[in-house]
Write a structure and sequence with these properties.
The protein has helices at 48-65, 108-115, 124-127, 136-146, 150-155, 164-172, 185-188, 203-209, 244-251, 310-320, 329-334, 373-399, 416-426, 438-450, 457-463, 476-493; strands at 4-10, 14-20, 26-33, 45-46, 73-80, 85-89, 99-100, 159-163, 182-184, 194-195, 200-201, 218-220, 223-228, 237-243, 260-264, 268-275, 286-291, 299-306, 343-345, 363-365, 406-409, 430-433, 466-470. The chain is α+β, with helices and mostly antiparallel strands. The strands form seven sheets. It has a seven-stranded mixed β-sheet with strand order 17-18-16-15-21-22-23. A six-stranded mixed β-sheet has the order 3-2-1-5-14-13, with helices on both faces. Strands 4-7 form a two-stranded antiparallel sheet. A hairpin with a 3-residue loop joins strand 1 and strand 2. Helix 10 packs antiparallel against helix 12 (373-399). The protein is globular, with a radius of gyration of 21 Å. The termini are far apart.
């Protein structure tokens, strides 16, 4: 008898398959990294075929590690790095080019061209998004214009476009042999091609950006049965899709207006549930779809997106080689009492929320001969907390409600030094749940709801449990002085390109 729910969590640096029980506890997990491809400065790519191979591998090994078979699962959900795009052949399933990753900046000229005819907020009334290299639609247009013959083939219906969720769903449900070409509302809301109010593709946006409707997936709710899987999940319903940050919001059971979470992963993403009506941001945040359950109305969120968080620790490891593993960064940062006057602004791909400046580049400010690698490590961790403070300040202004606490999740929340500094900077408690990998849990919840494994949202709320709470212990003047120095460092990054 089927007893569990599975989640395929396809992230920026790795793919993981997790199995959860009815209490939302982890039964089994398996994870594999994939290559990061950097053809030239500002370009970031993934091999979509490699991601599909890794997905099959982690599913098989995740089941094996738990002593499970596909038949033990009532449903599987998919969660994904959101704005990364794949274009592939309908007939063969072969990608026409590498996946272009959300961090990639090659569409800067196209975004500037689009903005010249109405400003960077030209599409914001319909999409909730500024014109930025972050989003999916311009990446698709770039592929169609730079791969020989691609635009004509797309117009003829020979090519399919999808964010990673669509790519995985299509393959999991048969690929060229009947694969379902769908996406959910959360991923569609990140393309610059969907109207937030109608929750559908918009012909004016498609024409302006240059993406043919013939290649688009159908937009569906985040929780419903999309189809049944083939091997290695033979016969299991695929029943949940959520972009990774919306999945974390769902996994943190932020179902009430005013509830918020922050995920600390490759990037850092704070979402605030604003209910069934989109809230336009006046302070540099994104308006996005939070989730949609079956035939119910879509729910919306304000989001603050930060491009570089955990990726900065990887940079210390891989590029500067001052640590051998990401886990070493906390001990290195604790080897000094403070940041030594150093502020690190990791604008490697420009600055996202609340600045939206693609002309920014990374800066390490305040260097003296006193500074050691310990100070650099501490400044790198503090950068994530400062960026989150900027986003929270904007969110408080937009929502008119000061958050009383912040739920946190993702790989970096096990860094105790960072979490304490985060509470100090925000001046509110920071709370980590028992299951901190809430991205996978959230899409498992969506899939389980669709097949009746959980009865409703109250079932999910009952599963949330507090693991650790950090209360602020820094004085207001010290906090504000540190933040003022951070903002000064940010000013040095602007207009670099």
């Amino acid at each position: 008898m089927a007893e569990y729910v599975g989640a395929l969590d396809q992230g920026t640096t790795s793919t993981r398959f997790m199995v959860f029980d009815h209490n939302g506890e982890v039964v089994s997990s398996y994870q594999e990294e994939h290559r990061q491809i950097f053809p030239q400065p500002g370009w970031v790519e993934h091999d979509a075929a490699e991601i599909w191979d890794r997905s099959r591998l982690v599913i098989a090994r995740g089941l094996e590690r738990g002593g499970l078979r596909a038949a033990d699962l009532v449903a599987v959900g998919i969660t994904n790095q959101r704005e990364t795009v794949v274009v592939w052949e309908r007939a063969t399933g072969d990608p026409i080019y590498n996946a272009i990753v959300w961090q990639d900046t090659r569409t800067a000229a196209l975004c500037d061209e689009l903005a010249s005819q109405g400003g960077s907020d030209r599409f914001r009334p319909k999409t909730g998004l500024p014109l930025a290299t972050y989003f999916s639609g311009p990446k698709v247009a770039w592929l169609l214009d730079h791969i020989e013959g691609a635009r004509g083939r797309a117009d003829a219906g020979e090519l399919l476009f999808g964010t990673i969720d669509s790519w995985l769903l299509w393959n999991l449900t048969g690929g060229p042999s009947g694969g379902r070409h769908l996406t959910d509302v959360t991923n569609a809301s990140r393309t610059l091609l969907m109207d937030l109010s109608t929750v559908d593709w918009d012909d004016e946006l498609l024409a302006a950006v240059g993406v043919p409707r013939a290649m688009l997936p159908e937009i569906r709710p985040s929780s419903e049965i999309y189809g049944r899987a083939v091997d290695p999940l033979e016969g299991v319903p695929i029943a949940g899709i959520l972009g990774d940050q919306q999945a974390a919001l769902f996994g943190q059971v932020c179902f009430d207006v005013g509830e918020a979470k922050n995920t600390y992963g490759t990037g850092c993403f704070m979402l605030l549930n604003t209910g069934a009506t989109p809230v336009a941001s006046q302070n540099g945040l994104l308006t996005t779809v939070a989730y949609q359950i079956g035939g119910q109305p879509a729910m919306y969120a304000l989001e603050g997106s930060i491009a570089i968080a955990g990726a900065l620790v990887q940079w210390l490891r891989d590029n500067l080689e001052i640590i051998e593993s990401a886990g070493e960064v906390e001990a290195l940062a604790r080897s000094v009492d403070d940041n030594g006057g150093v502020y690190f602004v990791p604008a490697f791909s420009g600055l996202f929320a609340p600045h939206w400046r693609s002309d920014a580049r990374g800066v390490i400010a305040g260097l003296t001969r006193f500074v050691t690698k310990g100070h650099l490590a501490r400044a790198a961790l503090e950068a994530t907390a400062f960026q989150t403070r900027e986003v929270l300040d904007a969110m408080n202004l937009d929502s008119g409600v000061d958050l009383a606490s912040l739920k946190v999740d993702g790989g970096m929340v096990y860094n105790e030094l960072l979490m304490q500094f985060q509470a100090d900077q925000l001046g509110v408690p920071v709370m980590r749940p028992v299951v901190a990998e809430t991205t996978a849990l959230g899409t498992a919840y969506a899939a389980g709801l669709a097949v009746g494994y959980w009865d409703g949202l109250d079932d999910l709320r009952a599963n949330w449990g507090l693991d650790t709470r950090w209360d602020p212990n820094s004085s207001g003047p010290r906090r504000e002085a540190q933040f003022a120095q951070w903002k000064k460092a940010v000013s040095r990054t602007l207009g670099w390109v």
